[in-house]
C-alpha cells in the first residue's frame, strides 16, 4: 500500500510547502475604498504577483484570525499595477476585516496602520478562456458578478491598446440581482465603460442586461413611471433595469440568430440551479452541423 500512498503524499506536501511560502510573501495594501452597502475594495501589491482575468485568491488577516483563509475573486485586470478584491460585509470575519482596516472610523486612515494581509494564489477558473471566443455570454448572479469586473476591465484595456488583434468582438453581459443595493458598486464600472465606448463610437461592443429579480409591486410601479427617462433611476445607466428573470430560451435563440456558424462561450458565476438551466439551453440551441452555431458552457458555482 505504501507504494501507492507515498507518491501522492509527496506531491501534496510539496504543494502545501509552495502555498506556505507564497503566503509568507509580503503584501502591501495600497488603498481601501468603501463602497455603498458595506462593501469594501482592497487594492494590494505583492512582488512577483501575476494574474489572469477571473482568477481568485485566498486571503488571511492575522489581526482578525490567525488560521482562517477566505477565497475572493480578483476584480482588477492583469493590465493594472495592483490587484484588488471586493469584500461584502456579511459575517464575523468580514466584519473584523472591515474594522481592522479602519472603515468604521470617520477620520482618514494612515497606510502604516492598515493590518497585515497574507495572500495565497492566484488560482485559475473557467473565466480565463473568455478571450478564446469571438462572441461570449457573461452571466453573473448577485455577488457572482465579481469575476466579470476583471474580465470587462481587461477587455477594455486590450480594446483600447490594440483592438485589431483582439479576437473577442461581442460581449453579452447579464447580471441578476435580488435587490438594488447590489447594483451600487458595480454600476460605477459599467457607467465608465458605457461612456468610453460611446466616445469611441462602438457602443455595440458590449450589450448588457441588468435584472432585478426580487421586485415587488411598488418597484414595478416606479419602473413604469420612470421608464421614459434617459437614464435608469436605479443604476444611472442608459440601459434600463429589467424586472423579473430572463427568458433564457429567447435569449439563446436571439444570439444564435445574430451569430450563425459561431462558437459562443457561455460563462456563469452563480448558483447550481441556474447552471443547470444554462447548460440545457447551451445544448438545445447548439446545432448538430459542425459549421453551425455552438454554445460552449463554462461555470463556477458558489
UniProtKB/TrEMBL annotation:
<keyword id="KW-0521">NADP</keyword>
<keyword id="KW-0285">Flavoprotein</keyword>
<keyword id="KW-0406">Ion transport</keyword>
<dbReference type="Pfam" id="PF08022">
    <property type="entry name" value="FAD_binding_8"/>
</dbReference>
<dbReference type="GO" id="GO:0042554">
    <property type="term" value="P:superoxide anion generation"/>
</dbReference>
<keyword id="KW-0851">Voltage-gated channel</keyword>
<keyword id="KW-0249">Electron transport</keyword>
<dbReference type="InterPro" id="IPR013121">
    <property type="entry name" value="Fe_red_NAD-bd_6"/>
</dbReference>
<keyword id="KW-0812">Transmembrane</keyword>
<keyword id="KW-0325">Glycoprotein</keyword>
<dbReference type="GO" id="GO:0043020">
    <property type="term" value="C:NADPH oxidase complex"/>
</dbReference>
<comment type="function">
    <text>Catalytic subunit of the phagocyte NADPH oxidase complex that mediates the transfer of electrons from cytosolic NADPH to O2 to produce the superoxide anion (O2(-)). In the activated complex, electrons are first transferred from NADPH to flavin adenine dinucleotide (FAD) and subsequently transferred via two heme molecules to molecular oxygen, producing superoxide through an outer-sphere reaction.</text>
</comment>
<keyword id="KW-0832">Ubl conjugation</keyword>
<keyword id="KW-0349">Heme</keyword>
<dbReference type="GO" id="GO:0016175">
    <property type="term" value="F:superoxide-generating NAD(P)H oxidase activity"/>
</dbReference>
<keyword id="KW-1133">Transmembrane helix</keyword>
<dbReference type="InterPro" id="IPR050369">
    <property type="entry name" value="RBOH/FRE"/>
</dbReference>
<dbReference type="InterPro" id="IPR017927">
    <property type="entry name" value="FAD-bd_FR_type"/>
</dbReference>
<dbReference type="Pfam" id="PF08030">
    <property type="entry name" value="NAD_binding_6"/>
</dbReference>
<keyword id="KW-0560">Oxidoreductase</keyword>
<dbReference type="InterPro" id="IPR039261">
    <property type="entry name" value="FNR_nucleotide-bd"/>
</dbReference>
<keyword id="KW-0408">Iron</keyword>
<keyword id="KW-0274">FAD</keyword>
<keyword id="KW-0472">Membrane</keyword>
<dbReference type="InterPro" id="IPR000778">
    <property type="entry name" value="Cyt_b245_heavy_chain"/>
</dbReference>
<keyword id="KW-0813">Transport</keyword>
<dbReference type="GO" id="GO:0034702">
    <property type="term" value="C:monoatomic ion channel complex"/>
</dbReference>
<dbReference type="InterPro" id="IPR013112">
    <property type="entry name" value="FAD-bd_8"/>
</dbReference>
<feature type="domain" description="FAD-binding FR-type">
    <location>
        <begin position="19"/>
        <end position="129"/>
    </location>
</feature>
<dbReference type="GO" id="GO:0046872">
    <property type="term" value="F:metal ion binding"/>
</dbReference>
<keyword id="KW-0479">Metal-binding</keyword>
<keyword id="KW-0407">Ion channel</keyword>
<keyword id="KW-1003">Cell membrane</keyword>
<keyword id="KW-0597">Phosphoprotein</keyword>
<protein>
    <recommendedName>
        <fullName>NADPH oxidase 2</fullName>
    </recommendedName>
</protein>
<dbReference type="GO" id="GO:0034220">
    <property type="term" value="P:monoatomic ion transmembrane transport"/>
</dbReference>
<keyword id="KW-1017">Isopeptide bond</keyword>
<dbReference type="InterPro" id="IPR017938">
    <property type="entry name" value="Riboflavin_synthase-like_b-brl"/>
</dbReference>
<dbReference type="GO" id="GO:0006952">
    <property type="term" value="P:defense response"/>
</dbReference>
Amino acid at each position: 500500500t505504501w507504494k501507492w500512498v507515498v507518491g501522492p503524499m509527496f506531491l501534496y506536501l510539496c504543494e502545501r510547502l509552495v502555498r506556505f511560502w507564497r503566503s509568507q510573501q509580503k503584501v502591501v495594501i495600497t488603498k481601501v475604498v468603501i463602497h455603498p452597502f458595506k462593501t469594501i475594495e482592497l487594492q494590494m501589491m505583492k512582488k512577483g504577483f501575476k494574474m489572469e482575468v477571473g482568477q481568485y485568491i485566498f486571503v488571511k488577516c492575522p489581526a482578525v484570525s490567525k488560521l482562517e483563509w477566505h477565497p475572493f475573486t480578483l476584480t482588477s485586470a492583469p493590465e493594472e499595477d495592483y490587484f484588488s478584491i471586493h469584500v461584502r460585509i456579511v459575517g464575523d470575519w468580514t466584519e473584523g476585516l472591515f474594522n481592522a482596516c479602519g472603515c468604521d472610523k470617520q477620520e482618514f486612515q494612515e497606510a502604516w496602520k492598515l493590518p497585515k494581509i497574507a495572500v495565497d494564489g492566484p488560482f485559475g477558473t473557467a473565466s480565463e478562456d473568455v478571450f478564446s471566443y469571438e462572441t461570449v455570454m457573461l452571466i453573473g448572479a448577485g455577488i457572482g458578478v465579481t469575476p466579470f469586473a476583471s474580465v470587462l476591465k481587461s477587455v477594455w484595456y486590450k480594446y483600447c491598446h490594440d483592438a485589431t488583434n483582439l479576437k473577442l468582438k461581442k460581449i453579452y453581459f447579464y447580471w441578476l440581482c435580488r435587490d438594488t443595493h447590489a447594483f451600487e458598486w458595480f454600476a460605477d464600472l459599467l457607467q465608465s465603460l458605457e461612456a468610453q465606448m460611446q466616445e469611441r463610437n462602438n457602443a455595440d461592443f458590449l450589450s448588457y442586461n441588468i435584472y432585478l429579480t426580487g421586485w415587488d409591486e411598488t418597484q414595478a410601479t416606479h419602473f413604469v413611471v420612470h421608464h421614459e427617462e434617459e437614464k435608469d433611476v436605479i443604476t444611472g445607466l442608459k440601459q434600463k433595469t429589467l424586472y423579473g428573470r430572463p427568458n433564457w430560451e429567447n435569449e439563446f435563440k436571439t444570439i444564435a440568430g445574430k451569430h450563425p456558424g459561431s462558437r459562443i462561450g457561455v460563462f456563469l458565476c452563480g448558483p447550481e440551479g441556474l447552471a443547470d438551466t444554462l447548460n440545457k439551453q447551451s445544448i438545445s440551441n447548439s446545432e448538430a452541423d459542425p459549421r453551425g452555431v455552438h454554445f460552449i458552457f463554462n461555470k463556477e458555482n458558489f
